[in-house]
Amino acid sequence: MSATEHGWLGKLSWESLVFSNFLESPSINEAVASAAGSLVILASIAILGLLTWYRLWGPLWRDWLTSTDHKKIGIMYIVFAIVMLVRGLLEGMVMRAQQAAAPDGFLHADHFAQLFSTHGTIMVFFVAVPFLVGLINFAMPLQIGARDVAFPVLNQISLAVTVSSGILLMVSLVVGQFSTGGWSAYPPYTGGDFSPGVGPDYWIWAIVFSGAGTTLTGINFTVTVYKCRGPGMHLFRMPLFCWTVLCASILMIFAMPPLSVAALMLGLDRYLDFHFFTNDLGGNMMNYANLFWLFGHPEVYLLVLPAYGIFSEVFSTYSAKTLYGYKSLVIATMCIAILSFTVWLHHFFTMGQSPTINIAFGIATMLIAVPTGVKVYDWMATMYRGRIRFTTPMVYAIGFLILFVIGGLSGVILANPTVDFQVHNTLFLVAHFHNVLIPGVLFGILAGYNYWFPKAFGFRLNDKLGRLSAYLWFAGFMLTFFPLYVAGLLGMPRRSFTYADLTFKPYMIVAFIGAMVVLAALITLVVQFLVSIRDRHKTRVPVGDPWDGRSLEWASPAPVPAYNFVELPTVTDRDEFSEAKEHGRAYQRPKNYRDIELPKNNPLGFILCVTSGILMFALVWYIWWLALISALAILIAVIASTFRKETEYIIPASQLEKDTEAWLALVEKSEAVSRDLEDSPRNVGYSKLEL
Fold first, then answer.
1. 56-540 placed in CATH 1.20.210.10
2. What's the whole-number average pLDDT of the chain?
């Protein structure tokens, strides 16, 4: 049946609901699928009920859903990423349970294939990217002394299409089935002949829309760094985090379009019977592999570079030292960004290109390890003779150093095409990939979450529970993925839902135990958050500098006001706030209070979130009339938004003076605490200067 031969509801029917299969043929496999769908429905009802019971719809709409404040948008990105992280980890745990129970197991092959497809898609596109974008949104404008990002409404729109794409993935748990073609969606597995269902369509539209949001975000961040820096904030006075953001943003601009183009071409193959990636009529599947990995390897560094920036901030702050080798770290960051576009072919060394090409890309893959090594040595030199405080972010950073080096070394091994040919399709590669991304990205975003949380909400997270969660992450990660190196070398293929060789079973059992420890780490993270909320009156840091910070984000109250700075700071040094504290320039009254102009709230982002979600769902299920209506609604909403005349509001100088004087009075009466007391109730965000 062609794309035009469907009724009013397209492909939708009773059989599309996940519960229908369980009712018709009950089994453990169908029970797992139905439980996941039920959990999505019940969680949605519970959230809607709580918002209604506590009458939070008004504040939610007024203060969050329509906000153009970069800090609130960043927080919403992070909340969304944490929700998706829960799903991604639970799916990983189910896969580990299936492999531990093999050769019997409890999942069907197709269900397992859906799990590893959604797990990879979610963890890369809907956990790592939005979590990092959220942290960047919150911290980067503050660090460069800016009022906001360059395009506040565009920032809102980027969040909207990312969230709507994530919601589409959640809907796939309830209606229909997801793709079985992996997170990379290689044809012919995702072509119309092999997968006539809606699974690949869910993947295509989620990737296209979220990719558009990420590309727009890259443009926004790049312009912000280039054009919105405060007075005196030269490029080489920026904190290293801002340099990594700039390079990662450029990667977003140039690396995301190849993925979007590949996904759209795959969609044309499926919807309109084009032949871009078929074996007949001029199609070439290798074109897809090249396009996908032309995005895919820069994507790794798109994720890792901002995490490097977070670790740089953490090492410097909690070692109480200026970051060692700043210029070499900047140069290394730029080298990584450039070299990331020269290594994509190592992802298909085994696909038949010439040995000469393999050698060239193997050498490039080895070279990219050099600037990363420079960073590792600079970070260790920063800690050398520093007064190290083993706070939660520092624990994550040190764990990253140890584990990431192991993952990097396994990557250098795989850069040899002859070695890669032997282990490419085994669990060794899975272990390497996770050994890079979990310490390199996940530990980085968790370090950043603990580091900047008090700045966002005005109170500190519980450090003991934070460290416990970090140790559980380390232990769970090693138990889950280190056995996969051995199983891979023994020959166990990746993506295997079962196996006949029981040599693999002990390693799979250990990996499952590790997955349970990872689940415990996630639960501890949630408990840490809840306990911190309960004890927030004891851990408030309203002055705004709980860690003896070095950069400008710590120079304002906590939580940060909408305008960021009552007067844009003039920057004279790389560690501007640290220098200001040392020379008595911190916490100064402005000479003159002036009105500040900020963008008004805008409903456009929320409208586009809803309408783009409906459009994607309609396209997935071939409901053409609904797709047309939602597309028109998007067009009308965008055009109508251009007719808004009053787009900004004024915060009067009198209000600024009142707020600032109250904050400065709090500073004057607060006790400056030493680093030894930063985890005590005496720490109200006023750190004692200790050189």
1. yes
2. 95
